[in-house]
Write a sequence for this structure.
């Protein structure tokens, strides 16, 4: 994990030397936060959206993951993984992820703001549609 | 360890071609002008289906609105294929699955163009539509599928009588009406094309939905499934059990059955083994990447599907052109959830590339696909996929699999899946 982080930092520094047209937005993030913000974790988290909504804000029925306590998230995912918490599909997803990913996903979702995501409003099918 | 990380933004990478007048709308007949102060460049997305919508939204989100996104969609409404088999079963209306595209203009600062793409000039990075054209730094093609009528040419012009209903819309309504009008004791014949095709479990879900309707309202009627494949291609054990038990005496499944001839007037089909006359006939034709992929010449696999990198979804033949969704050549199921997954890996990679960083070298995503076996109960197949660097493809991780049996609880989760994926791509 550490090595990966330093590699990450190195890449960013390397970029800053190369490109002169870059400005830095002052944004302070802890190392875990910046890892869980990585493309790797944000895309896994986004993959959950089909059932748990954009950025973990469910549009209905399934639990909202945004703002969830990270410790709780990790315990539940590990319980799905080893089968101690019964599930219809969640054990399959938990088993496919490694511990680092579960930890970083916990951090990612804990940092998401709770917002209301609604399903879109349905409407009449227009005559002109295929 | 409390390190300070700084996020990098590109101040200005505008090429002169992108500095256009600030109207943000399409001229009556001409090039697209978009206001783009402080932009990292422009991505044009062809197709506002599951894949294209997800790509557009997530590029805006992850680039903190620094990348301009233009979506070109020929339809003015989004009609969901997922859950459309339930219209045939009678538990949903087409209206339940039909949505407007208003969100795009309102929520994410996407430039929306309701037009049809007629040509792609990849050399000059320009997309030509019926009523104008637009240039891009990167192009995403998300066109879904086109039907192939090569082996049954008379099917194409008979779409009123024999709708495929493999793109949700009026064809779905038409097929439902035919089922309603069919007398009890009638025969519904449907065919499954050889894999790969859009939505592997979809045809078997359809057979269940029609059987469920017959069982309740027309119990003397039959469903004959003519499958071009040697066996059920998805959730096999579960569907086989439902056919044999829940719909015993109604569903008649026949493997290795390819329709070789069609008589439209009498709705009679011929396979290698038999001649069958149907009251209601539903032939699902073989498919290929949609027209825009053909126009851009990225459909390099058997002139049918598009070969892409699974790190960026960039075409392996045409640079700066990415392809996502059903149109790509892959071992991944052609599902809506997959389409959105590919879209987000592609979006994330484009954001990184346009910020002069490297994309994730080892993407991971999950797929959950539900099928309804009646109006309430559903079954799933769920799998996590991880990039395998040696093979350069996405490989199923351990732990994936299917439901033990159909349940109403999974039916509720399937509804939740639909609500959430619609919310994700449409709001
Ligand atoms: C009956 C049925 C049931 C299904 N059930 C499920 C399910 O339960 N779960 C699941 O995950 N998947 C399901 N699927 C599969 C799912 O519908 C597809 O995988 C998904 O739609 C693929 O998304 P896409 O964006 O690649 O294509 P599409 O959603 O088809 O989007 C393509 C878009 O491109 C536009 N377009 C095409 N050509 C042009 C052009 N020249 N100019 C402008 N625009 C253009 C089209 O109008 C369309 O809006 C089902 C499919 C069917 C048929």
């Amino acid at each position: 994990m550490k090595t990966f982080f330093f590699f990450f930092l190195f890449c960013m520094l390397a970029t800053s030397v190369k490109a002169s047209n870059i400005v830095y937005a002052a944004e302070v993030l802890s190392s875990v936060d910046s890892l869980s913000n990585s493309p790797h974790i944000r895309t896994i988290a986004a993959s959950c959206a089909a059932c748990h909504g954009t950025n973990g804000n469910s549009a209905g029925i399934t639990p909202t993951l945004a703002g969830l306590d990270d410790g709780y998230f990790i315990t539940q995912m590990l319980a799905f993984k080893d089968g101690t918490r019964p599930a219809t599909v969640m054990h399959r997803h938990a088993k496919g992820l490694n511990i680092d990913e579960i930890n970083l996903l916990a951090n990612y979702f804990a940092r998401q703001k709770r917002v209301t995501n609604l399903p879109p409003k349905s409407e009449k099918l227009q005559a002109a549609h295929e | 360890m409390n390190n300070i990380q700084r996020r990098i933004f590109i101040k200005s990478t505008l090429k002169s071609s992108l500095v256009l007048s600030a109207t943000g709308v399409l001229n009556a007949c001409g090039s697209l002008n978009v206001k783009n102060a402080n932009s990292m460049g422009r991505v044009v997305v062809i197709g506002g289906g599951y894949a294209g919508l997800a790509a557009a939204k997530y590029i805006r989100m992850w680039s903190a609105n620094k990348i301009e996104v233009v979506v070109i969609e020929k339809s003015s409404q989004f009609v969901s294929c997922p859950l459309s088999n339930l219209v045939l079963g009678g538990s949903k209306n087409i209206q339940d699955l039909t949505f407007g595209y208003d969100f795009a203009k309102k929520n994410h600062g996407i430039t929306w163009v309701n037009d049809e793409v007629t040509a792609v000039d990849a050399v000059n990075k320009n997309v030509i539509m019926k009523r104008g054209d637009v240039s891009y730094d990167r192009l995403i093609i998300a066109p879904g599928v086109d039907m192939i009528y090569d082996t049954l040419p008379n099917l194409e012009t008979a779409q009123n009588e024999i709708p495929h209903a493999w793109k949700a819309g009026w064809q779905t309504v038409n097929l439902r009406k035919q089922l309603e009008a069919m007398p009890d004791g009638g025969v519904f014949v449907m065919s499954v094309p050889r894999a790969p095709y859009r939505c592997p479990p979809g045809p078997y879900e359809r057979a269940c939905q029609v059987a469920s309707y017959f069982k309740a309202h027309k119990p003397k009627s039959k469903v004959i499934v003519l499958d071009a494949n040697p066996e059920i291609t998805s959730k096999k054990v579960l569907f086989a059990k439902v056919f044999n038990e829940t719909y015993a005496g109604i569903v008649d499944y026949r493997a290795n059955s390819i329709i070789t001839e069609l008589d439209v007037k009498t709705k009679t089909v011929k396979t290698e083994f038999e001649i069958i006359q149907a009251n209601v006939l539903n032939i699902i034709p073989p498919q290929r990447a949609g027209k825009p992929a053909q126009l851009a010449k990225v459909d390099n696999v058997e002139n049918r599907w598009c070969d892409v990198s699974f790190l960026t979804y960039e075409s392996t033949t045409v640079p700066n052109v990415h392809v996502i969704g059903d149109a790509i050549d892959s071992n991944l199921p052609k599902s809506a959830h997959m389409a959105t997954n590919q879209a987000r890996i592609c979006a994330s990679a484009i954001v990184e590339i346009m910020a002069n960083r490297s994309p994730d070298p080892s993407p991971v995503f999950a797929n959950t696909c539900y099928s309804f076996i009646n109006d309430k109960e559903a079954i799933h197949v769920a799998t996590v996929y991880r990039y395998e660097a040696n093979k350069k493809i996405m490989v199923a991780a351990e732990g994936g699999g299917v439901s033990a049996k159909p349940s109403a609880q999974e039916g509720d989760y399937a509804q939740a899946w639909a609500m959430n994926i619609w919310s994700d791509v449409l709001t």
Q: What stands out?
A: Confidence is low (pLDDT under 50) at residues 1-29 of chain B. The radius of gyration of chain B is 23 Å.
